[in-house]
Amino acid sequence: DGSASSLFAYRATAPAGEGFVSLSSEVVVPLDPLDWSAAETLVEIAGERSSRLMLEQQRTRTAEQARNSVLMAGSMDMVVLVDDARVIREALGAVSRLGPTGELLGPGGDVLGLFEEPGPVADLLARSAPSRGRVTANLVGSDTVVEVTVMNLDSGESTVSLHDITDRVRLVRALNHRATHDELTGLLNRSGFAAAAAEAEASFLTDAAPFGIALIDVVDFHLANDSLGHDAGDTILIEAARRMVEMVGDGATVARLGGDEFALLVTGDEGEIAGATRAALSAFDEPMHPSDVVFTARAKAGVAVGSAAMATGGRTLQAADLALAVSKSTSAERMVFFRPDMREAVLDRMAASSAVAMAARRREFRFDYQPVVDAADGRTVGLEALMRWDKGGRWRYPDRFIPVAESLGELTSIFRAALGPALAQLAEWRVRHPDLTMNLNAHAGMLDDDLPRWLLREASRAGLPLSAIALELTEQSLVPVQASTSLGALHAQGLGVYIDDFGTGWSNLSYLAGLPVSGIKIAREMAFGERGEEIRRPLISAAVALGRAFDLDIVAEGVETAEQLEVARELGVDKIQGYFFARPMPADRMTQWLREGDAGPDTD
Ligand code: C2E
Ligand code: CA
């Protein structure tokens, strides 16, 4: 076949005394089995010849492609005129483009011979004249897809127009694939999975085909992603996807819904669903090796077994989601099955979601303010802005509505909408209290690259220096920030950065050195116990010592009693916040509070 490698293969396998070297299909040279030097020469010639052949083929192909694209650009359409027996009279247009199929187009041919499945075109031709119809069809022996328009004329003849839509079909297919698949792992993505789940729900309702959905969350993924970098994170996700597909085999479809969340769609009964989920979880039993380190991930699963009630509303995925939330927050079990008594919570949450989305559009969120006082003299030196939703009923407080807003992706917009009025209010307070600062609670989504732009803009619009504002971040959300330069840059321009709930998160204290931090807020639970029932002096002094070492502003949160206040002062805390001084209050009461603080002598 003209390639040097097959000649060498021949040399190795030719039985003694016979053989031919074939340089191309036409050239066959008898080979003296003893004359290997002659064979070697032939090999050389063949090698040269084969590269020449390849070059030539390549040239021809390029020329062909060029010609095709000219034809394509020139004439996309072909029209075939057929008589009442479907026999071709004439063909007009880019017939040659059809290649071998084009030959079928000559006069006397059967027009139906053109199509892989001639049925639909035949049906159109069989309609009584005058009529017009259109179908999509594949041309026989090629990948070409055409739109076929048939017009039956009164004369008994018909025209069959072919319009090439191959590129369009391919494009649509490629776009569909992209829209439904995850680029990183090649698995189905959220919308692809939602479609598959909807299909399973439909066939459950029509044919009672049992199915289930499992959501799988890689619990420690963010730790690896944050500390090892995104490349390592990607490696872990790809490896996890590969293993899961391997472990569950043909029994289930694996998808990646985004981030570290995977999903399984299992067709089968409860036992099979549990089996597939267990198999997928076992993908995390063995450690992974992103970059040079060993990473052992833990994964948790929430499972929903298909039921008529859930399938009817298309809520199986949500049910699995809730079971996953239960598994992550409360259970030691790796796999939690959704139970109907969890449904109330699901429905409740759904109702809240739409209410929060609507409230966000109506700008119903605003801040209450809680004073932060100087530990030495009780003067109000700062405020913490705490978001409220007055019309939210029992969803009024952030612990309720923030997770919902976050899952809707609305938190940043809600926060920004409330920020403008709050900063204007701060500017007004600072007229009489020029050193007053305001702490804002930050969430991870807010720390995107856009943060400097809008925070700076809002501050300058209110006429505030950046040093009048501080962001409070939790340890978990702060550590990944190390990589993001935006917060560091703002900090350099005066923005305060506090670690919120200090002592409840990582407490791997080495990170403090590398971060743009101005202060810590000692978590109430850490200092005073889960319900504020004790005073943990050693923990408080450890936090204070640490804060001192890094030259940080130290705030004690959740101080409710005189005794707690006394200890916090004694142990060297700089500032105090808590119900002992004041609860969070609306802006007008805060104005009054500040005025009273002005007027009278300090409490101490
Ligand atoms: P956090 O940042 O730890 O805020 C302090 C919470 O403790 C506030 O609850 C406050 O009312 C409460 N608190 C203050 N002093 C005391 C005290 O002496 N005893 C007790 N038991 N509690 C006290 P709130 O306002 O319900 O806020 C809860 C959480 O919601 C906040 O916790 C914060 O993480 C989040 N949050 C509030 N506003 C926002 C916001 O605008 N954006 C974001 N991302 N999160 C917010
Ligand atoms: Ca806070």
Any overview of this molecule?
This protein is α/β, with parallel strands linked by helices and 604 residues long. Helix content is 45%, strand content 20%. The chain has 22 helices and 20 strands. Strands 13-14-15-16-17-18-19-20 form an 8-stranded mixed β-barrel, surrounded by 4 helices. A 5-stranded antiparallel beta sheet has the order 4-3-7-6-5, sandwiched between helices. Strand 13 (365-374) and strand 14 form a beta hairpin. The longest helix has 39 residues, at 36-74. The chain is elongated. Bound molecules: ligand C2E and calcium ion. Ligand C2E binds next to strand 14, helix 13 and strand 17. Calcium ion is lined by residues 384, 441, 472, 500.
Overall residue-averaged pLDDT value: 83
Spatial strand order of the main sheet? 13-14-15-16-17-18-19-20
* Total E-strand runs: 20
* Proportion of residues in β-strands: 15-25%
The ligands bound in this entry are: ligand C2E, calcium ion
The outline comes out as elongated
pLDDT < 50 runs, ≥5 residues: 1-34, 67-75, 600-604
Tally of alpha and pi helices: 22
Cα Rg: 36 Å
Helix amount, in percent? 40-55%
**Terminal-residue CA separation:** 100 Å
* Computed structural class: alpha/beta
Largest sheet: 8 strands, mixed, barrel
Give keywords:
single chain, 604 residues, 8-stranded mixed β-barrel, 5-stranded antiparallel beta sheet, disordered N terminus, disordered C terminus, binds ligand C2E, binds calcium ion
In short:
With 604 residues, this protein is an alpha/beta fold. 45% of the residues lie in helices and 20% in strands.
